[in-house]
Amino acid sequence: MEHTENLENSAQAAQPGRARAFFSAAAKAAALLVLWYAVYARLKPAADFATSGLLGLSLERRLGSAVAFFLFEAPKVLMLLLLVVFGVGIVRTYFTPERTRKMLAGRRETAGNVLAACLGIVTPFCSCSAVPLFMGFVQAGVPLGVTFSFLIAAPMINEVAVVLLFGMFGWKVAALYTTTGLVIAILAGWVIGRLKLEGWVEGWVYEVQAAALDAEPGRTAFSERIEAGKSAVREIVGKVWPYVLAGIAVGAGIHGYVPQGLMASFMGRDAWWSVPLAVILGVPLYSNAAGIIPVVHALLEKGAALGTVLAFMMAVIGLSLPETVILRKVLTMKLIAVFVGVVSVGILIVGYIFNAVF
Questions:
Q1: Which pLDDT does position 7 carry in this prediction?
Q2: What's the mean pLDDT when you consider all of the chain?
Q3: Theoretical Cys-Cys bridge with 307: which of 22, 263, 342, 355, CB 3.0 to 4.6 Å?
Q4: The total number of structural domains that make up the chain
Q5: Where do the H-state alpha helices sit in 123-260?
Q6: Mean pLDDT score, 334-338
């Protein structure tokens, strides 16, 4: 009895210390956020000054325009990545693959498709984890269509893509991309579920005993979540920054040297074949969002239609060639063909709709 009282007293004594640590961390975060915004707001004039004042290049000429584009977009995108990836890293501490599997187990289709697509955005996922995730979901009783809703949403709607779109086009296009990606993931998963293709999964998948994908975490301290945010920045930004700079460099070249309106001739809304061509070109390509979205920005500036460009981007990101190859270990070629075909049709529809509306 006395031991229990001592433990309770110790816990109560520790609470003020935890509260002080939390508010101290919050104050530091607020100060850093103010500093971040002050720097972010001055990027455009700084880029123009560096181009014309320091390098002596005219902003009206092709080279100067391309250099100013690069000097502005590169730090802007990297700063946005640092901020949002840190926040997403904290959010992800609440969603492990094992917890996601348990949340989806026993869910009916339709509602399960919606939940799976939403969870795909925040759950850690990469092509190398496609097989264990797929096996864990199927063995836990998650319907095949619901599993595909997750597998489509997870790579297609990632924090890097959303951040880059927000930084280059604003919140409306970022929200548009997120919404349409979710709709494709939900409907494609629902269609695959309606087709009842469980027999097209490799037979050995059902024979392997289900194992935990990840240890279920206990109560996580806020300081550990902060560390997870820092770790996400090191891991994600540390890997993608070369692709960001390469993509922005390509975009800068298009911005400065491609004649205005050239892209409209074969990627414009008037060319009916531009959307299927964009999907056909995008499916076999492999690039992450960091490399492709800066190019998308430049294409739109030069007259390409929004729907066509979105279709191309979604095909490249959402139908990742490495993921498809890896999934061949657990899916028959017939099921992979259905998966690629259904998602491609969804992307085509999105492309045509946005070309008609915007």
A1: 43
A2: 76
A3: 355
A4: 1
A5: 130-139, 144-156, 159-169, 171-194, 204-207, 222-232, 238-257
A6: 88
Phi, psi of 108 (to 5 degrees): -75, 160
Give the range of the structural domain holding residue 318, as residue numbers without chain letter. Answer: 28-209+221-358
Cβ distance 293 to 166 under 8 Å?
no
Query: What is the spatial distance between Cα 295 and Cα 280, in angstroms, rounded to a whole number?
Result: 18
Number of other CB atoms surrounding residue 141 within 10 Å: 12
Tokens describing residue 289: 């969002």
Which of 123 and 264 is assigned the larger pLDDT? 123
Output the pLDDT for position 11.
47
Q: What is the pTM of this model?
A: 0.65
In angstroms, how far is CA 3 from the centroid of its own chain? 50
Residue 337 domain flag: yes
144: in domain: yes
Is residue 12 domain-resident? no
In the numeric block, which tokens belong to residue 87?
């926040």
Distance of CA 66 to the CA centre of its chain: 27
Which tokens hold the place of 80? 């946005």
Phi, psi of 279 (to 5 degrees): -70, -45
Distances (CA, A) of 113 to 65, 105, 240, 314, 343: 45, 12, 30, 19, 14
Round to whole Å and give the CA distance between 22 and 25: 5
pLDDT-derived band at 209, boundaries 50, 70, 90: very low
